[in-house]
Design brief:
Number of domains: 1
Strand order of the largest sheet: 4-3-2-1-10-11
Structural class: alpha/beta
Distance between the termini: 28 Å
CATH topology: Purple Acid Phosphatase, chain A, domain 2
CATH architecture: 4-Layer Sandwich
Shape: globular
CATH class: Alpha Beta
Helix content: 10-25%
Strand content: 15-25%
Number of strands: 13
Oligomer: single chain
Length: about 250
């Protein structure tokens, strides 16, 4: 039986990304391109710090032409390597996270005259490039799993439980930069097990804003190996020093 892979990349936070980890992920996609059925950016792929409410009124934290530089770099360093690595039939999806939504909820609420000029799907030409854009709060389904960014679920120690209790299906989210899982069964459908998983991030695990405080951030990503219709195993390779293994092969 032929299997296929659905690759899920959460919380890249470009330009605060982990370049070595992403290089290894792109190698994995390229070398397995014939099996890669979809690649999903699971939100917060762009950090958008230059337009964030958190940097407003703080010019030291914003760069001249910073938003334009971030978009150009994201296209060259993230979108293009993925597009070059996959076959034309591969489904490419970008789910909007809370960081991308700062464009809509902060900037455009204040200056609606910029609508259509600064919007991420428009300025990145996502539709033209073959990407599906999913607005904030949205989700898609892959191999029997619901994929969502997770800002609508929140965070905390038991976020995987919160997610699967809310979604009531097998589900995967990012947002919290940590790997965790929780399983449940409904009272009247005991045989139907439901798994909720939070994915690691692909950005720095020591962000400057945290001022060197310890955190549980982990670098990694998700691979759904679909072996029958809506039947898949979820693997979460953890990237260490820019390397990880999958199926007996080391990447990076």
């Amino acid at each position: 039986m032929t299997t296929k892979y659905h690759v899920v990349l959460a919380d890249v936070h470009y330009p605060e990304h982990d370049a070595k980890a992403l290089k290894a992920v792109f190698e994995f996609i390229r070398k397995n391109r014939r099996k890669i059925a979809s690649v999903t950016l699971l939100g917060d792929a762009l950090d958008c710090a230059n337009l964030s409410r958190h940097t407003k009124g703080k010019p030291r934290l914003r760069k001249h032409r910073g938003y334009k530089q971030d978009l150009d770099g994201f296209t060259q360093d993230i979108l293009k390597p993925i597009e070059d690595a996959v076959l034309p039939a591969c489904k490419l999806t970008y789910i909007c996270g809370n960081h991308e939504d700062w464009i809509e909820s902060d900037l455009l609420d204040e200056m609606p005259e910029l609508d259509g000029i600064v919007n991420i799907p428009d300025v990145l030409r996502l539709e033209e490039r073959g990407w599906k854009w999913v607005p904030v709060g949205g989700h898609i389904e892959r191999a029997g799993f619901v994929l969502l960014h997770g800002d609508q679920i929140g965070s905390g120690m038991h976020v995987a439980k919160k997610m699967v209790d809310s979604v009531n299906e097998n589900c995967i989210m990012g947002h919290v930069h940590r790997f965790s899982a929780f399983s449940k069964a409904a009272l009247v459908t005991e045989k139907k097990k439901q798994l909720g998983t939070t994915l690691p991030c692909l950005c720095t695990v020591a962000p400057a804003y945290a001022k060197n405080q310890p955190n549980a951030f982990v670098v990694g990503f998700g691979v759904l190996e679909e072996w029958a219709y809506n039947r898949a195993n979820l693997y979460v390779p953890i990237v260490m020093d820019g390397k990880f293994s999958f199926g007996g092969v080391v990447y990076g």
